UniProtKB/TrEMBL annotation:
InterPro entries tied to this protein: ARM-like, ARM-type_fold, Blm10_mid, HEAT_PSME4, PSME4, PSME4_C
UniProt domain Proteasome activator Blm10 middle HEAT repeats region: residue ranges: 318-801
Matching Gene3D superfamilies: Leucine-rich Repeat Variant (1.25.10.10)
Proteasome activator complex subunit 4-like HEAT repeat-like domain mapped to chain residues: 1165-1446
Places the protein is found: Cytoplasm; Nucleus speckle
GO biological processes: DNA repair; proteasomal ubiquitin-independent protein catabolic process
Protein name: Proteasome activator complex subunit 4
Statement: the UniProt record of this protein carries the keyword Transmembrane: no
Major location (coarse): cytoplasm
Length: 1821
């Protein structure tokens, strides 16, 4: 069928479509759609091409781009490959137009994403895109200073849109571009510049091509893969950029699976994954403070891509990884790690299934597949599923994220249902028996839903017994339908629905009479299928009980809001509807009739209240109508009609009573819901018409509503095109069993190309019936309304509502009511005429008024008149106005309240996800899901229709505006919602509202409070694209000044709205283009597309194309004129002096938002904002501060740059050799060559960017020319622009500066003020523009500021000094010397006045001042800071100076090597400083100093201080301290009997000399440095750091020095948590071993706590070598037999952890050894021997207990025997019995929840032993 349709379309259109939306072919009018799509695409293509050729980006390109997106959503990529490629190239060219505004970028980028989404359609050989234009676009949007300052404004989503687009486009970047990209970004890979390297890694991840042929690897990923992995290993502690690098590795592994050998990287990668999860393993619960964030998706992609092949390394590490995580999936273990590990579980399974699908089932395309030998085998799949199974078993009962777990189960069940489904069913059946754990049952049911498809279709999936569970499971679920547990009820409903859709309820019990080939499982299923009818009967009995419990008094608490449903009611209705339709559509006709009769008896033999339970019953009955309208209507309609007639006849006043009889209301409710029977209604239309005649005008509001609903349902049912059945199988369920054995079709997916959908499409008879009803009920109502409008008939309020309700109900037939035909209105000037997106949606029939008029037009005119009349006579009739709004909603948008396409779309996808098969894909969904998807497409087509904007639309929109400013809030809200929909539907329709908005804004806000409020609300909507921020300079010019000039109102609602409107403008007003251009490349590509088939006719377009450039210039000038007028009007309003302060603030804010990167503010605006900085209002001053900064940036002189000759500096090659090399020595700070003369100052050797030269050289180095060649003030003073003159004159005026400084140094908010970077930037730009001409003005004020000790004065001084230093970048040598001559003494004074509050400000000031500045040009400041910082009067000032020095040297760290060496030498004498604060600052400096000790595998050694050298300097003294402590221990009192130290406190008091204190202080300083280094720098612990471990473990036990104890704890915590490289592991193990042999038992205890932390966080690395594992186990067992019981107990916990995380390779051998030793008899000869024997026994018992503790949530087969061995030691000496009881207590506690399951692992004797162990002996025993 697919091939036939494609060939047919090829014949019609002349080309083969790329990718059609297949659902169009399944619609009942599919034969008309090829012609329609060809017409639509040709129109869109033609007008898009014309828009480009006419250089009309707006509205032309923007409008037709939106229509192209809509076309693709409806028809898919239904155009030729030539057009596909042409459109991609055209939009790529449009996207990269210079200075394109953000909204257009977003629109074009989104369109490109849509076009590039199906990458298999176009190969890289067919399409090639250049990467550089996209990079330039990224730079322009995200990297420019104008963006950072807020001068270039865009929505936050634009960055993500652009990045996503690059991810689509990079597939088509040529592989040869790899080298270009590396050349661009490699120079930025300087580890010492975090921002630069992070930026470079992000761009490399975004742009590097990774899809290539294996033979292209040498010009592709081989150029960078090993290099970047080495960089990651060198900087293994760099958390800022490793996520981007991980994504790059995930991409390269995913697209080149099997072609890259990851073997050597696997262990360290798993270490990184482990620390990302932030599991709660830490030394004494101390967290390190450093967060590592890698996206779980990237981790999962990489892991899955590395699996397979001949090596088992990847599977080995994955298994260990999941074993580590297993216990954290248990519901008892929740924390911040829980969402991450849950996502890990889902994503691993998802990407594994995707890989299997790609390798086995995916249709071949140009994309590279893994080599045959690396593809996943069946064994690999089994291995993977078994690895995942224990974790998913634990996660099943998690209280959060059940959806993720269910999806993970679904993916695994798709792979191996025979492994996963039995496990889920076992859990489900077990939880059904539990009365105390309802959560387990609901979780199990949800899990069963996820695997239900693979259970039912088990025969096809190597799980033949799967379908046998269906019927028992259905019966088992019936008790779950419990009104008292609504959650359980809903999930039970869902599972029953799923099972019904998978396994239709048809009795096949006689199958054995016709089939000889039935399998054993089929025999069981067929015999059990006889119970389907019984199940359905019991099911509906349960439903009846639930419905009866849902009466109004039990469910409804909000009695005053009876018309609105509660959330529970809505959920109940949805659940009931979903269940009933599912089981009824999927049951045989005989079962259907049985249930139908049962429901009929239940519904008609009782009277239920009509609000809740009655509504549920009515909905239940309506489901039967949907499934079998013929039988349902036959049973219900005559009965209900007769009952209603009898009730009406019995009570003659029933029609006039205000309160409807309960029985009549209930029967009307049933009838109104049950008439959804499409053409089957025709035979009952007379009866129904009779009921309508009698009830439609009832005085009872409730009765009228029900009757109107009946009419509405009739109209909708007869006119709505929809499927008539949703069976899971194509064949009817009444087919004889001998012809069709349905059980063999259970779970079978539908064939998308042979669905055989049965559609209802209204025919002649139905249209005639609709026409009759419309003429009968609509015409009288319209006549009645016309008489009301004319005044000839008075209508009561309720009667008017009744008439409008009837009109609204009749519009249910809107599908057959064509739109009015009127000339289109031109809302905006365009070269393209108005156009309508007209779509076929079903029927060609049209219903008209009796006189032939258009029904919609007639109703629109009548309702327009009625609205005017109501507003004139009774505006308080809000219900009538609400109906008018609803009627307009249908007339304009074809939307009924309650029919939500978006909700249908969400529920469809939710159901599809639960039952989809990700393994086979190819739309292999169940048939009913495919039918529902086709119906969704029909609804989407209906909603997507649009028409041209006509005079009637204008009338309706203005009417809605009138209601949108009504005095009643509910009317305003409803009308405003429809206005926003209209504005979104009809582009530029907001222009229609402009005159009305202008009129309202000029009204008196007090007298017209509600109108003004409504108008403000309208301007603020729609939410993300407010009308007030439309991209229309003429509209903005008209509206914004009027807002500002509107009359002030002090009502809180208006005040808040005005504030919110200002915020909306600030948030949602992006930069709008003023000067637009279209490149020649765009024109060229448009011509190429025009020539593709179907060709675009441009014959009549030549003149417009010729005049395109001229018209573009005219439009640009018009935009510029409107922009300037807007600002001038706002400025005039401010200068008039009559504005209220809030309006003045709004006007100033608007002028700030109007900043434009391409257009300067006028001199008048410049003058205004300069003086606004001195305004009394702080809000005005803050805005003015930002705007003045914009002005300074706009008027900044363009400084001259030159390219440096690399050869001049001896740079002969650009090879990657990171570090200090002979060719970059000239960049370093050198006190001997710093510029000390004008000649040296003028040299071209000063490079400000830190990254240049460290990693590799860029192709070209651009530096600023010498100061003499720059546009100095002396050269420019006679040529200053008017704006520059205003700036200069203002800042020259000392009174202005004095006032400005006074405001800057005022406190704004006590304790909340911070360093203000914007003020710094103002000072910087002032001194950049005018250099030292203004210096004298500011120096005097600066003197006052530094003298003042007040916090705000000091902060202002810091900002001013930082701005001065930044601004003197291009000053001459003499001016610079003069500056430093003035500045250094002031900074010295400031040092004396530092306070705790301002030290941070001064640190930031120095850091910002020297950021991106060549240190050689700032040697005055650096040398001043280096000058003996600790010689100050107080330690506080000394600390402050160290802090400033550290910040200064950190800015160009690797280039400040000389200064760093000097600083280190200086601090070496102060490492043991007596003051704690000084030591802390020194330790921070050491962290910064040694953070530069980064050595690359092939790089040069850094010339910065080396960690190894430093430790050689300090360790002899620290070893001395260690030896002294051990010596004291050896002479300390020992226990003569056992030879171990009794005391835990350290005998440091005996070292009572000054030297000891000095050594302790030295240790503190070094330890704090190491702690900071591990946490803050690119590298974690290095081998030298582990030399501190023994001393830290020894000193940890000191209780007399809290600081020392804390420092040791922190050191051990961060060292334990740090990543260890392979080459560092021996050093770590050596240090651990040394401590384990330490004579001080407290040190041994500390290291026993330390070992599990270190092992856990580095387990993948350590288990990669057997000798390391053996060494750790030996140390553990040695500690287990330690003399000290405390150490043994800790060692037992350590052993338990190692066993729990499967660290020990052969645990059963170790267990056997423990068992053997436990049987040895205790010998008691001699006290010493007795002690040794107890120690050994205790160690054995601890070892056995460790095996029990290592299984907190399960009971492996070997565990029960362990209890037998423990029982033998229960009467041993202490502490053995207490150890056993503690272990058993923990075991009972952790196994309590599932003890009924766990105890099955024990024999009766073992249970008896366990009881003896856990129950203490009787006192009287």
């Amino acid at each position: 069928m697919k091939e036939e349709n494609t060939m047919k379309y090829t014949d019609i259109s002349g080309f083969l479509p790329q990718k059609e939306n297949v659902y169009n072919k399944l619609l009942p009018y599919a034969d008309k759609l090829d012609e329609e799509s060809a017409r639509l695409f040709l129109d869109i293509k033609t007008n898009l091409v014309k828009s480009v050729l006419a250089k009309e980006t707006r509205p032309g390109c923007a409008l037709w781009t939106s229509r192209l997106i809509k076309y693709m959503k409806i028809y898919g990529l239904k155009f030729s490959k030539e057009d596909h490629i042409g459109l991609i190239q055209l939009y790529y060219a449009l996207l990269t137009i210079p200075n394109l505004e953000p909204t257009r970028i977003n629109k074009f980028a989104s369109t490109l994403q849509f076009l590039l989404k199906k990458r298999h359609l176009i190969s890289p050989e067919e399409l090639e895109l250049e990467w550089k234009p996209l990079y330039d676009l990224c730079i322009r949007i995200m990297e420019t200073s104008k963006t950072d300052l807020g001068m270039y404004r865009y929505f936050l989503t634009l960055e993500n849109t652009l990045k996503n687009l690059i991810r689509f486009c990079r597939i088509y970047f040529p592989v040869e571009a790899t080298q270009e990209i590396l050349d661009e970004f490699r120079p930025l890979l300087c580890p010492h510049s975090t921002a630069d390297i992070a930026c470079a890694i992000e761009y490399l991840e975004l742009f590097l091509p990774v899809i290539m042929k294996p033979e292209q690897a040498n010009i592709g990923y081989n150029l960078w893969l090993e290099e970047l992995m080495n960089l990651w290993e060198v900087c293994h502690n760099a958390s800022v950029w490793e996520n981007h690098l991980m994504w790059l590795m995930a991409r390269i592994s995913n697209f080149n699976t099997g072609y890259i050998n990851w073997e050597k990287y696997i262990p360290i990668m798993y270490v990184r994954f482990l620390r990302t999860l932030q599991l709660p393993i830490a030394y004494r619960q101390k967290q390190t403070g450093k967060q590592f964030k890698i996206d779980i998706s990237a981790i999962a992609i990489w892991i899955v891509a590395t699996l397979g092949g001949s090596s088992d390394t990847a599977f080995f590490h994955l298994e260990k990884f999941m074993q580590i995580l297993e216990s954290y999936y248990h519901p008892a273990n929740t924390g911040k790690w829980t969402p991450k590990i849950r996502e890990m579980l889902k994503k691993l399974n998802y990407y594994f299934v995707e890989r299997v699908h790609t390798e086995r089932y995916k249709k071949p395309s140009w994309q590279l597949l893994a080599p045959e030998e690396f593809r996943l085998s069946d064994t690999d799949i089994d291995k993977f599923v078994n690895i995942m199974k224990p974790c998913i078993e634990q996660a099943m009962f998690s209280r959060q994220g059940s959806h993720d777990v269910t999806q993970a189960l679904q993916f695994l069940a798709a792979l191996r249902p025979n492994i996963i489904v039995p496990m889920v069913l076992e859990k489900l059946y077990a939880s059904m028996d539990s009365l105390t754990e309802p959560h387990k049952l609901t979780s199990s049911i949800v899990s069963a839903m996820g695997v239900s498809r693979f259970m039912v279709s088990g025969t096809k999936n190597n799980y033949p017994e799967g379908p046998t569970h269906v019927i028992p499971l259905l019966f088992a679920l019936l008790p779950g339908i419990d009104p008292n547990d609504i959650n359980k009820l809903f999930v039970a409903f869902d599972l029953i629905s799923h099972l019904a859709n998978l396994a239709p309820f048809v009795d096949c019990s006689e199958a054995s009479n016709y089939y000889d080939d039935l399998t054993e499982e089929e025999h069981i299923i067929c015999e059990a299928s006889a119970g389907f009818e019984d199940f359905m009967v019991q099911l509906f009995d349960k439903i009846f009980i639930w419905v009866e419990s849902n009466s109004l008094e039990f469910v409804r608490m909000e009695q005053h809001e009876l018309d609105q449903k509660s959330k529970l009611e809505s959920l109940s209705e949805f659940a009931l509807l979903n269940l009933t339709t599912s089981v009824l559509f999927q049951c045989s006709p005989s079962i259907f009739m049985t249930v139908l009769r049962k429901v009929h008896n239940f519904a008609t033999n009782r009277i239920m209240e009509s609000k809740v339970s009655g509504k549920l019953i009515a909905m239940l009955c309506s489901c039967f109508t949907k499934v079998n309208p013929k039988e349902t209507l036959k049973l219900f309609v005559p009965d209900l009609c007769d009952t209603i007639k009898i009730l009406l006849n019995e009570n003659e006043n029933a029609l006039n009573e205000e309160h409807l009889n309960d029985e009549l209301a209930y029967n009307l409710l049933l009838l109104s819901e049950i008439v959804d029977g499409n053409s089957h209604l025709l035979q009952y239309i007379d009866r129904l018409n009779d009921i309508l005649e009698k009830t439609l005008h009832m005085k009872s509001v409730h009765g009228n509503k029900l009757s109107a609903h009946l009419l509405n349902m009739l109209m909708m049912s007869l006119t709505t095109v929809q499927p008539t059945e949703y069976r899971s199988l194509t064949k009817s369920y009444d087919t004889p069993i001998k012809d069709f054995l349905i059980v063999r079709e259970w779970g079978k997916p539908g064939d998308l190309y042979n669905l055989n959908i049965s559609w209802y499409v209204p025919g002649e008879k139905e249209i005639k019936c609709i026409e009759m009803l419309l003429h009968k009920y609509l015409v009288p109502e319209l006549e009645k309304l016309n008489r009301f409008v004319e005044g000839s008939q008075n209508i009561e309020k309720n009667d008017l509502i009744q008439s409008l309700r009837i009109v609204y109900s009749i519009l249910g037939c809107q599908n057959v009511l064509p739109l009015w035909e009127e000339p289109a209105l031109n809302l905006i000037e365009s070269v393209i005429p108005p156009w309508a997106f007209e779509l076929t949606v079903g029927t060609d029939h049209a219903v008209k008024m009796p006189d032939g008029r258009n029904v919609r037009k007639t109703i629109a005119d009548a309702i327009h008149a009625v609205q005017k009349k109501i507003l004139e006579v009774d505006e308080g009739n809000t219900k009538s106005l609400q109906f008018i709004i609803r009627i307009y909603n249908i007339l304009v948008f074809n939307k009924f309240t309650g029919r939500d396409f978006e909700m249908h779309w969400k529920t469809f996808h939710s159901a599809k996800k639960f039952l989809e098969d990700r393994l086979h894909q190819k739309k292999a969904h169940l048939r009913y899901i495919l039918i529902d998807r086709v119906k969704l497409h029909q609804e989407f087509r209906t909603e997507s229709r649009s028409c041209t904007f006509t005079e009637t639309h204008k009338q309706i929109l203005l009417d809605l505006f009138e209601l949108g400013i009504s005095r009643y809030s509910e009317v305003r809200k409803s009308a405003q919602t429809r206005i926003f929909s209209a504005i979104n539907t009809f582009p530029f329709s907001y222009t229609i509202l402009a005159p009305s908005i202008k009129y309202v804004l000029q009204l008196d806000t007090i007298e017209n409070h509600e109108k003004f409020k409504g108008c403000l609300h309208i301007l603020m909507g729609p939410k993300t694209t407010p009308i007030a921020t439309r991209h229309d300079w003429a509209f903005i010019r008209d509206i914004w000044p009027l807002l500002v000039k509107s009359k002030p109102c002090e009502k809180p609602s208006i005040v808040n709205l005005m504030t919110n409107l200002s915020d909306s403008v600030k948030r949602y007003f992006p930069t709008i283009a003023i000067k637009i251009e279209v490149t020649d490349k765009c024109l060229e590509l448009a011509h190429i597309i025009a020539k593709n088939v179907p060709q675009v006719d441009l014959a009549d377009f030549d003149e417009i194309m010729t005049n395109g450039r001229e018209q573009l210039e005219v439009n640009n000038k018009e935009r510029m004129k409107n922009y300037n007028e807007t600002i001038q009007l706002l400025l005039d309003a401010c200068l008039d002096g009559n504005l209220h302060w809030r309006h003045y603030l709004m006007a100033v804010g608007f002028m700030r938002e109007l900043v434009h990167p391409d257009v300067k503010y006028s001199p008048e605006v410049v003058n205004f904002f300069l003086h606004a900085m001195l305004h009394d209002l702080i809000g005005i001053r803050k805005i003015a501060l930002r705007v003045v900064l914009f002005i300074l940036v706009q008027n900044k002189p363009k400084f001259v740059k030159k390219s440096l000759s690399l050869k001049h500096f001896g740079i002969t090659n650009r090879n990657v050799v990171p570090g200090i090399r002979p060719d970059n020595q000239w960049l370093l700070y050198n006190s001997k060559t710093v510029p000390n003369s004008p000649e040296e100052w003028e040299q071209l050797r000063y490079v400000h960017k830190q990254y240049i030269g460290f990693y590799t050289w860029p192709k070209e180095i651009e530096v600023y020319s010498s100061p003499s060649e720059q546009p100095t003030p002396a050269k420019r003073m006679d040529m200053l622009s008017p704006q520059e003159k205003e700036i200069y004159n203002f800042f020259c005026d000392s009174s202005n500066v004095k006032m400005l400084i006074r405001y800057f140094s005022m406190e704004e908010k006590k304790g909340k003020d911070q360093f203000n970077v914007f003020r710094l930037l103002i000072f910087k730009n002032i001194f950049k523009m005018f250099e030292d001409k203004l210096l004298d003005v500011y120096i005097s004020h600066l003197q006052e500021l530094v003298d003042d000790k007040q916090e705000q004065s000091q902060r202002c001084a810091a900002e001013l000094i930082s701005g001065l230093i930044k601004g003197c970048k291009h000053w001459s040598y003499d001016s610079t010397v003069k500056l430093w001559t003035e500045l250094i003494p002031l900074i010295r004074i400031a040092f004396c006045n530092f306070s705790v509050e301002t030290i941070g400000d001064w640190g930031l000031s120095i850091a910002v001042a020297l950021e991106s500045r060549d240190p050689n040009r700032y040697h005055w400041l650096l040398e001043f800071l280096m000058d003996n910082p600790l010689a100050e009067q107080t330690s506080f000032i000394g600390c402050a100076r160290i802090y400033l020095l550290q910040n200064a040297l950190h800015q160009q760290s690797w280039r400040n090597a000389e200064l760093i060496h000097r600083m280190l030498e200086y601090f070496k004498g102060y490492l043991a400083h007596p003051f704690q604060n000084v030591r802390e600052k020194i330790s921070y400096c050491l962290t910064s100093v040694f953070g530069k000790d980064v050595v690359f595998p092939e790089g040069n050694v850094t010339n910065c201080p080396r960690v190894g050298d430093f430790f050689e300097h300090v360790m002899p003294r620290l070893h001395e301290l260690y030896r002294c402590i051990l010596k004291e221990v050896s002479t300390h009192e020992k226990d003569r009997s056992n030879g171990f130290v009794n005391n835990t406190s350290l005998p440091l008091e005996s070292l009572n000399d000054e030297h000891r204190e000095e050594l302790i202080r030295l240790f503190k300083t070094v330890s704090k440095y190491v702690t900071g280094s591990i946490v803050k720098t690119n590298c974690s612990a290095v081998p030298e750091h582990y030399q501190l471990l023994p001393l830290a473990c020894v000193l940890q036990g000191n209780d007399k020095d809290d600081e020392l104890k804390s420092i040791c704890s922190n050191l051990l915590a961060v060292m334990g948590h740090s990543l260890i490289l392979n080459e560092y592991v021996p050093a770590a193990l050596k240090a651990i071993k040394e401590v384990s042999n330490c004579p001080l038992w407290s040190a041994r205890a500390v290291v026993t706590e330390f070992i599990p932390v270190l092992i856990f966080h580095n387990m993948p690395t350590i288990i990669s070598k057997k000798e390391w594992v053996t060494e750790v186990v030996d140390i553990t067992l040695k500690l287990l037999e330690d003399n000290q019981p405390e150490v043994r107990i800790l060692a037992g916990k350590l052993l338990s952890g190692l066993l729990h995380y499967h660290f020990i390779p052969e645990p059963l051998e170790l267990l056997a050894d423990f068992k053997r030793k436990s049987k040895a008899s205790m010998k008691s000869q001699g006290t010493k021997r007795k002690f040794a024997d107890v120690r050994t026994r205790h160690a054995i018992v601890l070892g056995l207990c460790a095996f029990i503790d290592s299984h907190p949530y399960d009971v492996p087969d070997y565990l029960p025997d362990v209890f037998q061995h423990l029982g033998l030691h229960l009467n041993d000496s202490e502490p053995i019995p207490s150890t056993i009881r503690r272990t058993l207590g923990d075991f009972k506690r952790t196994h309590h929840d599932n003890w009924e399951v766990h105890k099955l692992k024990f024999t009766e004797d073992e249970l008896l032993v366990l009881s003896d162990l856990t129950v203490p002996p009787s006192y009287y025993a």
